[in-house]
Specification:
homodimer, 430 residues, alpha/beta, Rossmann fold, 5-stranded parallel sheet, 17 helices, 14 strands, 45% helix, 16% strand
Chain lengths: 430, 430
């Protein structure tokens, strides 16, 4: 863990190093992934079944690719009722937020008599990738599937690998609750290929979303263009801005909630009180003694954690913008006034009773967020990812007479004669 | 040009071939591009100057990378007044449409007492790539720069190669009119690298947009993640849906306006009258005799053009959705009723007096649109490309008491103990 103070001469160098630290080269898996995609594209189901047998130790035939409704019901029946209840609370709140997010169509007629508009339509079909094994988070299923469902996507296909054939009941329950229409027991680049190109059994989709390992990320990169993809997530981070009126243990737990995700996760505390920062550092050490994921959280905190002392909250807001964190907590008396000064953050959590974990599960806004400084230009997953716009123009002769001549001039200046003629001939000028 | 009829037994095979025809493999330029990017990243201005000397035959020093305000003024003074006037008409209309497109922030407090919201912020800095030579379209400068300016982007850097040092006055005039804040006389992968990584002279940007050749497209692909990029444009297409009440020559000109762009462009007429289709085919042949870009338009029409006869407009709307065209013209008595049935199109042009060329220049909506069937999942360029959302949650103790327990249950189910503790400790339960 690094200690930095904006009042120190070494601050700038230390802060720049903090931002650069986690820039890692992704592994080179482009060639094996290209081979898998080509295999799936040309041989379809047969390739998918062979690859699943090889990578997931699961012999499959095409008729068993899809997890049946009976299997789903049998598995979800195993989920304890309190988890089902919690899933419903989360799903309902995520639904409500994303419904509020739905954009409206727009149309107006301007002074020249031209009618202009834009109309939103849902994608026809979306593919949702869900990692298998330990990285299978039911909350991620909710966060990826519900916005698509709310947007109006009719076909929502999910792929989840089931190594050795083991199904994850809570993941299946989350899929069922979120409007997923079909689930396939496949993973890796072969699942991405199946969703992008289609096979005899799996119809192709228009966009693929959801987290995955390096192979899945590279496969999404390679099929991009044929289908849409979501952004490739990097390691996760949180910035907690806290004054000394907070309980150090609560701040420490929030920092550790980020750190326990991944050794590459980054947790940063910004405070205006060095002594408070030290109290938090001590509380972190205490918590690390007992946390079940202590090994991961310790490594993350040791390598990428930081406590930064600032002179005031304006300075804090400026640092936040330079970090452009995925998650921002403002544990202050007046969090809104500081939040108003921040431009770059994926999601913000305001007040002393709003830990980031609320946003992971039950807040309502999406937890799929821009990581690794990409909040400078990117946003969290939303209904917008599952909608697209068609703009339109309607003009009659009178309107074309008004705006057409300028178009003719520009078309001719660009040397595009047919463009110019298509307007001027309508006006009887050629 | 292909003739297809939905009433024929061969229709389906012919239509599928029509969609597949233009699927081309992009050239393999990933290695030379990677080398150029690495060179620019490590050596900055020196690399950019050397590469510009090599590729554009233009010896440069770092102090000459940027085109000065005096040069811009001197060049734009050469533009004829009618072109300046036309540029102003186009720019004002593009501004008005994109201003209407600006989304509003959202906030609400729900029944549990949780305040939820999302806030839009502009990107800090955007890089605009403009091709040099013949492909330099002033209208593209307007269409890329104005949405960024309207969104509130403060820094709008443009790179335009000037082979042999030749500047394009109308391109510079368009940049000046659109709020571009700085212009560099560089192009290719080296320009993309300079904007993504920054050099001693050129500060890095957050997102790079604008069309370019295969090297530029590959460079954007490689810097994606460090910065945002726009979609990679493929060959362009139009579908014209027209009844026999239209002047065949006007329909022919609209088809040729698309075809004159590029040998890979695709122009498709859908009509309910085979004889009218033949009249349009004849009119195309007549126009091709005199068009200045006849060679390009002829090749495009010969290889990818099509006239499809349908039984009714419902059938037409279904075919449009399968094509998911970049541009859709509806030259019908009641274009709105057919448009209402279409889900997948980049931009639509309604009525007999609204050729697609209007949208290229003076309509107002953006002319940077999803090509090659990507309108299934993608949208045209817009203010959204230059904004990003921060979602937020505010909760007090009472609100956390209501929604927190479900979060604790799910966090524990996912094995994330610190997540659970960060909520339960605030509620005094751990």
């Amino acid at each position: 863990m690094k200690r930095l103070d904006t009042g120190s001469a070494e601050f700038e160098a230390g802060f720049v190093a903090l931002l650069a630290d986690r820039e890692t080269e992704s592994g080179r898996v482009d060639k094996p992934v290209a081979a898998i995609l080509e295999d799936v594209r040309t041989r379809g189901d047969a390739a998918v079944c062979e690859l699943t047998s090889k990578f997931d130790r699961l012999p499959l035939t095409p008729d068993r690719l899809r997890i049946s409704a009976e299997e789903i019901d049998a598995e979800t029946a195993k989920v304890p009722q309190d988890q089902i209840d919690a899933l419903n609370v989360a799903a309902s709140r995520i639904e409500a937020f994303h419904r509020a997010q739905l954009p409206k169509d727009m149309e107006f007629t301007d002074a020249d008599g031209v009618t202009l508009g834009q109309r939103w339509n849902a994608l026809d079909a979306v593919g949702l990738y869900v990692p298998g094994g330990k990285a299978a988070y039911p909350s991620s299923v909710l966060m990826n599937a519900i916005p698509a469902h709310v947007a109006g996507v009719e076909r929502l296909a999910m792929c989840v690998p089931t190594p050795d054939g083991v199904l994850n009941p809570l993941v299946l329950a989350a899929a069922k609750r979120s409007g997923v229409t079909e689930i396939y027991r496949i993973g890796g680049a072969q699942a991405v290929g199946a969703m992008a190109y289609g096979t005899e059994t799996i119809r192709p989709v228009d966009r693929i979303v959801g987290p995955g390992n390096a192979y899945v990320a590279e496969a999404k990169r390679q099929v991009f263009g044929r289908v849409g993809i979501d952004s490739i997530a990097g390691p996760s981070e949180v910035v907690v801005v806290a004054d000394n009126q907070n309980n150090p243990r609560l701040v420490a737990l929030d920092l550790m909630a980020q750190a326990e995700h991944d050794e590459l996760a980054q947790s940063i505390l910004i405070t205006n009180d060095t002594a408070f920062g030290e109290a938090v550092a001590a509380a972190v050490e205490t918590e690390l003694k007992t946390l079940t994921r202590s090994a991961i959280a310790s490594a993350s905190w040791r390598d990428f954690g930081a406590i930064i002392t600032v002179a005031n909250w304006d300075e804090a807001a400026k640092l936040v913008d330079r970090i452009a964190p995925e998650h921002l907590e403002l544990m202050l008396d007046d969090p809104k006034s500081v939040f108003a000064k921040v431009r770059h953050a994926g999601a913000a959590f305001l007040g002393r009773f709003c830990p980031e974990a609320v946003g992971d599960y039950v807040g309502g806004p999406n937890h799929v967020l821009p990581t690794s400084r990409t909040a400078r230009f990117a946003s969290g997953l939303s209904v917008y990812d599952f909608l697209k716009r068609t703009t339109y123009i309607a003009a009659d002769r009178e309107a074309l007479e008004k705006i057409g001549p300028a178009g003719v001039t520009l078309a001719n200046a660009e040397g595009l004669e047919a463009h110019a003629l298509s307007i001027s001939a309508r006006l009887g000028n050629s």
